[in-house]
Structures are given as structure tokens and as C-alpha cells.
Backbone:
């Protein structure tokens, strides 16, 4: 899988879900960590934890609402519960439980949704979380993270466990380009500047980060100086980094593997509308569900490509 | 150290009368709320809090070794608040701030604002799963605390209840007791008209629970059922408590489907309080 990348020879690393699973196994050294999975542990990769700490792993079956509620109870008894399933089932099936049993009472529950976005491919739209970020971000006090690659997913998992408070971590199915070295510099709520530039800023997360870096190379060839921000934390959003980008470059493109409403693009636009109105363009799934197809075909079909990011950047620079 | 509080039967009856009065007065003062469902749970809660069952410590509400009581039927909040005040978690005078701006005593329980409240509830069907989580943590930590969850009967229509029933049964969580306040009515009609649930005992037994049905207004039966539950090993226990919605106030008892979310009007309050005093 190339993700449409042509300029940069990225090493393709493990999927973010796999990095999460391995990091979770490490985190299991803390006896407070308890993992609950909705019968997909060989997909979410909580199987590593399960094999190592079987007494603290519970396959609660295909019952996401119950999973989240049990996690809330465990948190109420000072455990650090991690709940995992496919992102769409976790967020959509159990949304009221996340709202009422986790977010409202501010319970220390870690929610990990894998197989997010259209890049899961052939399984089709019923399995694709494309509204999960909007749902998670709508809940007061919930931290929302979308790591771009395996090393940052590993650090994000560790940070999630260590930080008190409800958190949603979004992971993907496919193996993805490696952007960070081991021990990625990753701080919740702080964007990573992967490339400095002063004409335009590309803000992305998840698989769109590698594409943004590739687009930046193309644009550089056209004489455009491009800044690239990995906005791995959608909430709390890094207001300072966004404001700086608006003040120091001429426009902003936001790229994400999510519907157009309520995700990273909306969040960045909300920050800028109030603080520093800026020319913007958005690369996302728009307002539609996808279909079946290979991941590569779907990304192409729905305009999640480096080329789409370049076009968006050119539009912004023209205005 | 959390401790159980055991009052005499006479004292328990007095407490039940007093707290029924608190439920009526606080909701009438608030001008809204759910007195009728709060009234049906009174004897059940009297034995839990004052019949030597729950081990609790109002001076240290989050003591890890406390027993947990989760009111999954969150609209029974006025009843829960009355008991928590009587148990010493906060002054009884606060009951008169129910549902008012600034008061921690919100329309439904908020665990982060009211000491003694174990779960924020009000979206029905969620408390049993939360109870399962606490019960699992006791097992993981080798602690001997017990978890009691009270649901309504209409609430049992929620699918999540049965997800949690399956999990608890399959894991043999014998430190978990479910109490169903089976008052027979939900908001608009009798449960039997909406989604008949009975018989509940065999349904729960088929999910590897032990279950029994009792008169939920008999202090003797409630006491012996909770005593039975404590002694069961290897399975979670369910107590299906037959109750009367609005118990003790004829106005509410006579037409439960008309009074689900309504307080007793000010002009009817004296009669209601007289009936409770005479009970």
C-alpha cells in the first residue's frame, strides 16, 4: 500500500493498532490496568495483553455498552480500564454509556477504537468509523488522539495510561509509513511540527500525516514553503500552534480521514474563526459514507491523497 | 472503617416513615421530580442502610473497602438523597435544595457532587454494568466488599441490563446483588401493558443467577432476602421486589401512570403526610 505517496521513501511500519497492542502489553506492568475487549482482541491487538495478563483481560463478548459500563465501574474502584473494539462499534454502539457512565462523571476510562476510517477497505462502510472523532470530541473532558504511525501510537498509548481522565485513542487497520523514530516526541495536546515553512501550513493526523509530508515535497518543487503539523491530539487542540501557523503562513489546509463535520477540520476552523481568521481548505470524506474496495482504491476514490492535499493548498494560496 | 448500621425494627419503621416524608416534602418543594418511584424503594433501602447490610462510612465515602450501592434507576434520586442524609453523608436540611440551581442534589444523582452516590445515573440501564465493574475489581484485589444495584422494572427493558446479566452470571460474580424495584409501572403505563417482563426469576436463573421474588415492602422479607443473598456463593443474586409505586400516598398509588414524574401538589401535601404518619 502506497497511500499515493510518490516523493518520500517512507519505511512502512506496523499498523497503529499493533503498536497500541504492544504498548498496552508493556503498560500491563501496572497492576491497575485491566483490559476489556468486545471479542475482537486479535483485531484490536489487545491479544498481547491477554496472553501476558490473562487474569486482567476480559472478553465481554459483542456487548460494547456493557464493556463501557463495566469499565466505568472498574475506574470507580481505582482500576485503569482500557476498553477496545472496532472504533465504530465502540463509539456508536456505546455512545450513551460513554457519555453517561464515563464522560459526565469524568471516569478514568481509556477507550481505544481500531479499524477507524475508510482505510480498512473491503469490509465496507458498516465497519468504518468516520464519525468517531466528532462523537468523542463532543463529550466534555474527553481527550481525543489520532496517532499517525506506530512509534507515535506506542507513545500515545503510554501517555494515555499515565494521564488521569477519560481518553479516546483512534487506531487504524493498515500498516502505515513510519514518520517518527523510536521514542517519538509526543505530548498530549501539543502538535508536532514535522516541517517548517512560511507560505502554507498543512495540519493533519492519522494516515493523512504521511500524505501531507509527501504533498509538501511536491509543493516545495513549485517553490512553496510548507509547514506540516501532526495534530495527533484533536482535543484538547493545540491552540497556540494553530494560531502561530495562521499568523506565520498565508493559509491552512486540514486533512483527516473523517467526515467533514465535527472532526479536526471543524475544530481548527473554530479556533481560527475566533482568533485569527485565515484562508482554509479541507481534505476529508465530505458528507458521505464510503463503499467496499481496497484501501488504496478507497483513499483515491474519496480524495484522501497527497495530490488532493496539494490541490487544496494551491486553492488556498490563490485566494 | 466502613461499618454496617443495624437499627431495631421499630427504628427502621420510624426511619421509613421519616424518609417517605422527606421524599414528598423535598419534591413538592422542588415543584418537580419523581416521588412515586422513590416511595416504592423505601423498605428496600431501609434494610440496606439501616438493617445491618451495607458497610459504609460517611466520613470516608470512597473508602476502598466500602460496600457499593448503585441506584441505576436514577430518577429515584429523592429517595437516595433522603437515605444518604439520614445515614450522615450530608445534613437533612439540604434535601430542601433538591433540583435547585447551585444544589448538588440534581434531578438525577451526580457521583462527583454528592458523597455516597456511587454512580451518576439517569440514563436507564447502565448501573448494573457499573456494578459488575466494581464487583470485578473486588475479585481482582481480593477485597470482600459487596455491590448492590437497584434498577426499576421498566428499566429492565434496556438491552444493556441483559448484557450485564450475562457477564455477571458467566463470571459467577457472587459479590453482586441486583434488586429490581418491581413496582409494575413505567412512565406512561403498566409494565405489563408495555413489555411484560414476568416471570423474571426463571429468566435470571437461566443466565446463571440465583433469584427470588419477595414483597418489597415487608421489612422482614427484605431483610431475609438480603441475608440470603450474602450467603450465596458462585453466582450473582437477584431480588425481585414486588412493590407499589407511590407506596404510602393514596393519591399516587391510585393512578401511578399519571404521577411518574410529578410531585404532590402543595394543597395535597398535608393529606399525603398524614397518610404517611399513620402508616
Residues:
Amino acid at each position: 500500500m502506497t497511500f499515493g505517496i510518490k516523493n518520500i521513501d517512507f519505511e512502512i511500519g506496523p499498523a497503529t493498532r499493533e503498536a497500541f497492542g504492544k504498548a498496552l502489553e508493556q503498560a500491563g506492568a501496572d497492576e491497575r490496568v485491566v483490559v476489556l475487549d468486545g471479542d475482537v482482541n486479535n483485531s484490536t491487538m489487545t491479544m498481547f495483553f491477554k496472553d501476558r495478563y490473562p487474569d486482567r483481560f476480559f472478553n465481554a463478548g459483542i456487548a460494547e455498552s456493557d464493556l463501557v459500563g463495566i469499565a466505568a465501574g472498574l475506574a470507580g474502584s481505582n482500576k485503569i480500564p482500557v476498553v477496545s473494539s472496532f472504533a465504530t462499534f465502540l463509539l456508536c454502539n456505546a455512545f450513551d454509556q460513554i457519555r453517561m457512565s464515563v464522560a459526565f462523571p469524568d471516569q478514568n476510562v481509556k477507550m481505544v477504537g481500531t479499524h477507524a476510517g475508510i482505510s480498512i477497505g473491503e469490509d465496507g462502510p458498516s465497519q468504518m468509523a468516520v464519525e468517531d472523532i466528532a462523537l468523542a470530541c463532543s463529550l466534555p473532558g474527553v481527550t481525543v488522539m489520532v496517532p499517525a504511525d506506530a512509534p507515535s501510537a506506542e507513545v500515545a498509548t503510554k501517555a494515555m495510561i499515565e494521564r488521569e481522565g477519560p481518553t479516546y485513542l483512534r487506531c487504524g487497520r493498515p500498516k502505515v509509513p513510519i514518520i517518527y523514530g523510536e521514542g517519538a516526541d509526543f505530548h498530549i495536546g501539543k502538535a508536532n511540527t514535522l516541517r517548517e515553512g512560511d507560505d502554507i501550513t498543512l495540519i493533519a493526523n492519522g494516515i493523512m500525516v504521511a500524505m501531507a509530508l509527501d504533498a509538501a515535497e511536491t509543493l516545495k518543487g513549485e517553490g512553496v514553503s510548507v509547514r506540516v503539523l501532526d495534530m495527533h491530539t484533536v482535543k484538547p487542540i493545540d491552540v497556540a500552534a494553530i494560531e502561530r501557523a495562521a499568523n506565520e503562513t498565508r493559509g491552512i489546509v486540514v486533512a483527516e480521514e473523517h467526515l467533514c463535520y465535527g472532526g479536526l477540520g471543524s475544530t481548527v476552523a473554530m479556533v481560527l474563526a475566533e482568533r485569527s481568521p485565515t484562508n482554509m481548505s479541507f481534505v476529508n470524506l465530505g458528507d458521505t459514507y464510503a463503499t467496499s474496495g481496497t484501501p488504496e482504491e478507497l483513499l483515491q476514490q474519496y480524495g484522501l491523497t497527497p495530490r488532493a492535499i496539494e490541490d487544496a493548498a494551491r486553492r488556498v494560496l490563490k485566494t | 472503617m466502613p461499618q454496617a448500621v443495624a437499627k431495631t425494627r421499630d427504628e427502621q419503621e420510624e426511619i421509613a416513615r421519616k424518609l417517605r416524608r422527606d421524599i414528598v416534602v423535598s419534591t413538592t418543594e422542588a415543584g418537580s421530580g419523581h416521588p412515586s418511584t422513590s416511595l416504592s424503594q423505601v423498605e428496600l433501602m431501609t434494610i440496606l442502610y439501616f438493617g445491618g447490610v451495607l458497610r459504609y462510612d460517611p466520613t470516608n465515602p470512597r473508602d476502598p473497602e466500602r460496600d457499593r450501592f448503585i441506584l441505576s434507576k436514577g430518577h429515584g434520586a429523592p429517595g437516595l438523597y433522603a437515605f444518604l442524609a439520614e445515614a450522615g453523608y450530608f445534613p437533612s436540611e439540604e434535601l430542601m435544595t433538591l433540583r435547585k440551581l447551585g444544589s448538588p442534589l440534581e434531578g438525577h444523582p451526580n457521583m462527583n457532587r454528592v458523597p455516597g452516590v456511587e454512580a451518576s445515573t439517569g440514563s436507564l440501564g447502565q448501573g448494573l454494568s457499573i456494578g459488575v465493574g466494581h464487583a470485578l475489581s473486588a475479585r481482582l484485589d481480593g477485597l470482600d466488599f459487596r455491590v448492590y444495584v437497584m434498577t426499576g422494572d421498566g428499566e429492565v427493558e434496556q438491552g444493556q441490563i441483559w448484557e450485564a446479566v450475562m457477564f455477571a452470571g458467566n463470571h459467577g460474580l457472587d459479590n453482586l446483588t441486583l434488586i429490581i424495584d418491581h413496582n409494575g409501572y413505567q412512565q406512561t403505563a403498566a409494565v405489563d401493558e408495555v413489555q411484560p417482563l414476568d416471570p423474571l426469576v426463571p429468566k435470571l436463573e437461566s443466565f446463571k443467577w440465583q433469584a427470588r421474588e419477595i414483597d418489597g415492602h415487608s421489612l422482614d422479607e427484605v431483610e431475609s432476602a438480603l441475608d440470603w443473598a450474602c450467603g450465596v456463593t458462585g453466582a450473582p443474586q437477584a431480588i425481585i421486589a414486588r412493590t407499589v409505586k407511590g407506596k404510602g400516598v393514596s393519591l399516587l398509588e391510585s393512578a401511578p401512570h399519571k404521577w411518574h414524574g410529578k410531585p404532590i401538589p402543595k394543597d395535597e401535601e398535608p393529606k399525603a403526610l398524614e397518610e404517611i404518619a399513620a402508616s
